[in-house]
Amino acid sequence: MIKIKSPAEIECMRKSGEILRDCLLFLGERVKAGVSTKRLDEFAYDYIIRHGAKPSFLGYGGFPGTICASVDEVVVHGFPSDKRLEEGQIFSLDCGLVFKGWQADAARTFPVGEISEEKQRLVDTTRESFFEAVKQFKVGKRLGDISNAVQTYCESRGYGVVRSMVGHGIGREMHEDPQVPNFGKAGHGPRLEVGMVLAIEPMINMGTWQTVENGWSCVTADRKPSAHYENTVALTENGAEILTL
Ligand code: MG
Ligand code: MG
Q1: Which ligand is nearest to the CA of 199?
Q2: Considering every ligand atom, which ligand is closest to the CA of 229?
């Protein structure tokens, strides 16, 4: 069941979203070659606690970090580790927090130093496809229009759209109905309504869309790089509002 949020509830989610937005800006400034993802995880934990919120991922199903740290061919759910980031990698950082009972969820893929043009194109296309999706998040459209927008935008540029992981509704829970796939048929699925809040999160691969499970983490089947871009987005009377940007 899709939980519709009142304007007052969306106002609460706006506050959670602001903390996460600023946390990601803070972390982004610290992404560089030589820093370990565990160090970035510590920065994230400290930032969230200092702002009166709680990390959502830490302990979720046994997850050991505040952030998911997914480098190059890791699509999502990488563990923070002592491994240091290296020049030329792309680093997907996913983070969630809860503030006064309301969740926020967002991800960015950061370049580590200078990256290849083809990696930059992948990162840019992934981000752009999110905004294509947001254009469809309005009354009169259906969920499939969001999914189809991401798929069409990315596949027409030669990229693989991950099937094994999807976006989701969000509110008091990190994962609520509906699931928000990055692939699907336009004009299908639930009607979009004011008060829906979705975590829209394209996960896009340079090569094949296929992935394999590697313990916790999800890795591209061909080991080519993958990018991730996510925001928590509310549909209000004034249209789609991105709460974590
Ligand atoms: Mg996320
Ligand atoms: Mg999410």
Answers
A1: 2
A2: 1
- Those residues whose beta carbon sits under 5 angstroms from the ion ligand 2 are 105, 199
Taking CA atoms, 21 is separated from 166, 180, 191, in Å, by 21, 21, 28
Query: 106 alpha carbon to ligand 2 midpoint, in Å?
Result: 7
The tally of CA atoms less than 13 A away on the side-chain side of residue 23 is 35
Q: Which of 203, 192, 202, 200 is nearest to 233 (CA)?
A: 200
pLDDT digits (tens, 9 = 90+) for 200-243: 999 999 999 999 998 899 999 999 999 999 999 999 999 999 99
Give the global pTM. 0.98
The answer on pLDDT for 72 being more than 90 is yes
The pLDDT of residue 214 is: 85
CB 90 within 8 A of CB 107: no
Residue 159 in contact with residue 182, Cβ under 8 Å? no
Could you tell me the distance, in angstroms and rounded to a whole number, from the CA of residue 194 to the centre of ligand 1?
22
